[in-house]
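Lab notebook, bench 4. Continuing the backlog of folding jobs that were queued last week. Each job is logged with the same field layout so the records can be merged later without manual cleanup. Today's entry covers MIT domain-containing protein 1, a 249-residue chain. Filled in by technician R.K.

JOB TYPE: sequence-to-structure
TARGET: MIT domain-containing protein 1
LENGTH: 249
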Amino acid sequence: MAKSGLGPEAGSAAAVTVIKRALELESESRYPQALVCYQEGIDLLLQVLKGTKDETKKCTLRKRISDYMDRAENIKKYLDQEKEAGKYHKQIKIEENATGFSYESLFQEYLNETVTEVWIEDPYIRHTHQLYNFLRFCEMLVKRPCKVKTIHLLTSAEEGIGKEQQSSGLQEIKESLRNHGVLLDLEYSSSIHDREIRFDNGWMIKIGRGLDYFKKPQSRFSLGYCDFDLRPCHETTVDIFHNKHTKKI
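JOB STATUS: finished
OUTPUT FIELD FOLLOWS
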């Protein structure tokens, strides 16, 4: 969202910068990012329009705003068509030590009140920190506007002394989810390799490292220990698709 309170000149300069970026992104066929920039630029121009008294300048601004709204609407229609055709693809590259990629920040765009069922395929929900990652992901699903009723987890079984810890940890999560009216369906596979998350509204997210892309905190009292937007990440790639029909495990 564009910040309010900018003077006409500062607001105009900021709008020009953002709109210029939108045009560049559109020319590179990076339509989702272009749409965001157009929307922000339009908001800035509307603020400038409110603070403009000269009628000639107002007329010029209205024309520019109308043109950019048309471009944004065309991009939105195109993206909607891509979603319907199952061709939508967006890629996010998380750099080494990057921050700002908590589960909420990464998934919030794709979660809404229509989501009732979620599928997670991740072979590494085994060790203690990985179980906490999965728990944190479940917490996000429970508290967000979506009305999740069922979560399916397909993972690999730990061997040796860690087997009991994995089993008991997942059972505790299952019981806790049940107390919130959510069913956790657990399955194990010895051959699973892919990492994939699917929502029943058609969104599918593939993360190279699965849910385990956060680095270990420097200490128990360092920033990022609790707030994962401040937690440095391992380098990984996130691929986002939209399929009209989400397959089930």
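OBSERVATION: DSSP finds six helices and seven strands in the chain.
SIGNED: R.K.
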